[in-house]
Amino acid sequence: MTAQTVSLQVTRPDDVADEHFLKALPKAELHLHLEGSLEPELMFQLAERNGIDLPYASVEEVKKAYDFTNLQSFLDIYYQCADVLRTEQDFYDLTWAYLQHCHDEGVVHVEPFFDPQTHTDRGIDIGTVINGITRALDDGQQAFGISSGLILCFLRHLSEDEAFATLNQAEPYIKHFIGVGLDSSEVGNPPEKFAEVFAEARRMGLKRVAHAGEEGPVAYIEGALDYLDVQRIDHGVRCTDSEAMMKRLQAEQMPLTVCPLSNTRLKVYEHMSQHPILQLLERGLCVTVNADDPAFFGGYLLANYTALAEHLGMTRQQAARLAGNSLVASFADDSTKEAWLQQLQKACE
Ligand code: HPA
Ligand code: ZN
Questions:
Q1: Ligand 1 pocket check for 214: Cβ under 6 Å
Q2: Are the C-beta atoms of residues 114 and 152 closer than 8 Å to each other?
Q3: CA-CA to 312 of 20 to 30 Å: which in 66, 84, 303, 319?
Q4: Nearest ligand for residue 35 CA
Q5: Is 211 near ligand 1, meaning CB less than 6 Å away?
Q6: Interacting residues of 243 by C-beta distance below 8 A, sequence separation 6+
Q7: What's the CA gap between 151 and 16, in Å, rounded?
Q8: How remote is the CA of residue 13 from the centroid of ligand 1, in Å?
Q9: Model confidence pLDDT, tens digit, residues 198-252
Q10: What number does the ligand 1 atom closest to the CA of 259 have?
Q11: Is 142 inside a domain boundary?
């Protein structure tokens, strides 16, 4: 199934989408770092529970520190905040809090990322991390009917050998995750660096995604496609630098998991009005909307959709197509996607 075969009949298609309409659309979230959903309030609770001194005096002070100039300025704080996550219950509470937002916003399916190396490098067992996350995802399915597929990300500023070690540590838990991804500092860490470990993940039957073309050049998008054999590109917005790449992504219907609020907070674009997501949509690329790191970038999935309506005049028709793309681009099976698309059609009438 590809996004191009989906046709939706939308009532008042050219009206700018309002929040009520956007919330009612069944949506999948495909680019969400669980560690990036750690709200300052929960960070303080976990710090207290675990007897950790935070370098911040208050939630307000934390929020003031979230004033980023680029990806690295964010990552430095993001890794520091993750230090409060120590026990299986901490990872459960983190994931559960995220799922409650999903439930409130009409999200029917999530494929969240986690960064095991951020935790194992601090001496935390990978089983502690995976078990806590998985237990919450299972409860999310039970309580809210939200389905999920967890994705293990390698940190690209570390070596491929370290990625291999992580994959080996994770192997006993393989039934708890569906794929691998690649995140952290992009520039200077091209996809080729991880070609072997992605090939091994493929042999293990895992799906593959990678961050590419967030701050890095179009060549990194090409590298992710050609060396890592990915099934989705995370971000990918820098494809606008290359007509040939936009044509390729359109022809292959390669999904891009775009994160509008992230891109403006990390200064990929100065202002949301400059964001190219709707132009890419109109060219027929399979773009999707996602929150990336909602606790750091000022909003969850619905806030990303409403920002597009507010600053780019996103119509109901465009919003419905973006939601449809997210369902189609997920790793769910085709019969599940068909059922979601019928639900989506109803929400558009
Ligand atoms: N880019 C790269 N690494 C990340 C991101 C991102 O947007 N969020 C969390 N880790
Ligand atoms: Zn990301």
A1: yes
A2: yes
A3: 66
A4: 1
A5: yes
A6: none
A7: 34
A8: 34
A9: 999 999 999 999 999 999 999 999 999 999 999 999 999 999 999 999 999 999 9
A10: 7
A11: yes
Inside any domain, residue 198 = yes
3-state secondary structure of 291: coil
Tokens 């690649």 identify what position? 182
Percent of the chain whose pLDDT exceeds 70: 100
Which ligand 1 atom is nearest residue 115's CA? Answer: 10
Do 2 and 286 form a contact (C-beta atoms < 8 A)?
A: yes
Which string of b and e fits 308-334 if b means at least 16 CB within 10 Å? Answer: bbeebebbbbbbbbbbbbbbbbbbbee
State if residue 215 touches ligand 1 by the CB under 6 angstroms criterion.
Answer: no
Domain-embedded: residue 319: yes
Indicate the pTM of the whole model.
0.98
Residues with C-beta atoms within 5 A of ion ligand 2: 292
Range list of β-strands (E), 184-318: 207-212, 232-235, 256-258, 287-289
Q: Which domain holds residue 226?
A: 3-37+91-348
Residue 274 lies in a domain: yes
Q: Whose CA is nearest to atom 2 of ligand 1?
A: 184
Active-site residue flag, 41: no
CATH assignment of the domain containing 143: 3.20.20.140
